[in-house]
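User: quick one, fold this
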Amino acid sequence: MKTIRASEIGSFLYCRRAWFYQRQGVESANTAEMASGTELHYRHGRRVLVNSCLQGLAYLLLLTSLALLTVYAIDLLMK
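Assistant:
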């Protein structure tokens, strides 16, 4: 018995005919468009990752500046 993967179930639910053709080994007619879409999703994922890292860095810098401001204010009050 062949194991059915979750991605195959998703493919079946999206388009039964495409799923059947894929199971029969029929090559898709729009491989160039699919490759282009895969590349687009890859670039988008990289942008999301970079933006998430930059947002984390921004929060770190904000917390650092607030800590330094607190230390400076305490130092002024102690004098």
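User: anything notable?
Assistant: Residues 6-78 form one domain.
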